[in-house]
Amino acid sequence: MPMILGLTGSIGMGKSTVAAMFAAAGVPVFDADAVVHRLQGAGGALLPAIEARFPGTTSESGVDRAALAAAVLDDDAALRALEAIVHPAVRAERATFLNRHDDAPLVVFDIPLLFETGADDEVDRVVVVSAAPHVQRARTLARVGMSVAKFDAILARQLPDAEKRARADWVIATDTPLGETRAAVARVIACTGVVQRR
Looking at the chain, which terminus has fewer C-beta neighbours within 10 angstroms, N or C? Predict the structure, then answer.
């Protein structure tokens, strides 16, 4: 079985950039966000269950993300209900990914809520992507449809960055030049002791 790196980081920290760097280095990457988008997109497997629990939040084109977010963001019970639909499906997809890459020396599970969902129990080492708070805030608020209130609500549901960094095996900074971040990714790969096959 491959060594599994769990890659995580709070919103706006640059995790997707770092995941792309691992992929460019030849490491298979499981992108949990991409899987969720597919499962909730047009014809997605989760649409019937989501529509049944949250009427009016889906259509033929998939989940209306703004409507679904509005339905769960300030409602703990609703959020738990959504997680009960989404998380098992993502775990199943993750198992399929791992089976597909069982001959790889190293794989990455890119999971935004790695600690919050307990998925850190399923990985061998953890990499946390981090940046200064003002950088995180500026990046996030530049996103289409983002507001200060929504940003604050999302942060409130995520483990604080300091706690994530304290629980990490490696921390990769993204408020540095891209070359430095890329070098940090290479160092993590080297530190795992695995030999990448191209």
Answer: C
